[in-house]
TrEMBL record:
Record-linked CDD domains: ABC_NikE_OppD_transporters
PANTHER family for this protein: ABC TRANSPORTER, ATP-BINDING PROTEIN, TRANSPORT ATP-BINDING PROTEIN
GO molecular function: ATP binding
Keyword Nucleotide-binding part of the UniProt annotation: yes
Domain ABC transporter: 11-265
InterPro entries: AAA+_ATPase (IPR003593), ABC_transp_ATP-bind (IPR050319), ABC_transporter-like_ATP-bd (IPR003439), ABC_transporter-like_CS (IPR017871), Oligopep_ABC_C (IPR013563), P-loop_NTPase (IPR027417)
UniProt protein name: ABC transporter ATP-binding protein
Stretches for region Disordered: 333-357
The species this protein was found in: Paractinoplanes globisporus
Keywords: ATP-binding, Nucleotide-binding, Transport
Amino acid sequence: MTVPDSVEPVLEGVDLTKHFAARGGSPFRRHKRVVHAVDGVSLKLYPGYITALVGESGSGKSTLARLLAQLYPVTGGEIRYRGQAVKATRGKAFRAYASKVQLILQDPFGSFNPVASILRTLQRAVRIHHADRSRAHQRATVDDLLRQVSLVPPEQFTEKFPHELSGGQLQRVSIARALAASPDVFLADEPVSSLDVSIRLGILNLLKKLTEERDVALLYVTHDIASARYFAAETAVMYAGELIEQGPSEEVTQHAAHPYTQLLIASAPDPSRGESARVKDIGQPPSLINPPAGCRFHPRCPYAMQRCQTEAPPRFDLGDSHTTRCWLYADDEEAETRRSQTSFTPQPPEPQTKEQS
Ligand SMILES: Nc1ncnc2c1ncn2[C@@H]1O[C@H](COP(=O)(O)OP(=O)(O)OP(=O)(O)O)[C@@H](O)[C@H]1O
């Protein structure tokens, strides 16, 4: 399940940067403080394939997804849709863009009008995107959308209100609503983390099926690096606003190159490895107002060298489209010696999304 070289990306972020004005602080400061939420991130999404974006809380994953959705203007860099740079943060241009690039949020309850029935909500979406269809055709489209997300028979769901459905059923309705636009890209921001563990797999499998059948590109934002291996062709790992490793999921999870990716894998829950083998204290992420100089991970890195404290690492190519930003992969003696010390390669844990027996 790797992306063939012949497949062109449908959506691409090139050197994306987003800085927010920091809250608080003295109003008399000459230089306004900023949060470096996303810095110089480049990422490609391919039709028919899932790309996982993995990282700790606060690493900038949601901000990156929102930049790609054009909900925020970028501070730097550009977004390319089918190879063309697009700036569409408002008005008609935004509406046209949003019909092609749909965001699916973590909390389905928060994204529905509580007093609108499922029929009304889906009819509205169908009307927006298929205004040319007759009323009867629009109504039939609603039933068809519900069938596509396995809410059958549709008439059992159309008259219900959001509070009458489970979290999993409502997440299926939000996927149906996103499908109404016939999008090319889904940006799914932690689509299962608010759901019960036992129903997560079903939702992820549905997203995977839709991605493959409709040739849609899916960005799957998650904390769970183990699920990335099972669901995503590509995995990108984010740390403190930067992408520090990316490539085919099998490579990134089985042969993690960056010490941070190795730490994420070692600290993920895995019943088969036993709790004692799990790395519990993985330290704290740095401030994004004053990120560390050099490599942002160096204060937590067990292999940090002198240069890691002052020079930001470039992207090193490890072959098979696997890249990492870490000085351990420099072509010199010091790096080679250090690299040999990182030989621990924990088996990737089972995903947290596994069905419970
Ligand atoms: N509108 C905003 N104004 C100021 N700072 C913001 C804003 N949105 C996000 N941030 C900051 O940007 C950083 C990245 O946040 P973001 O929500 O993108 O991370 P995340 O990896 O998605 O975290 P989580 O997994 O908890 O959702 C955080 O320090 C956050 O506080």
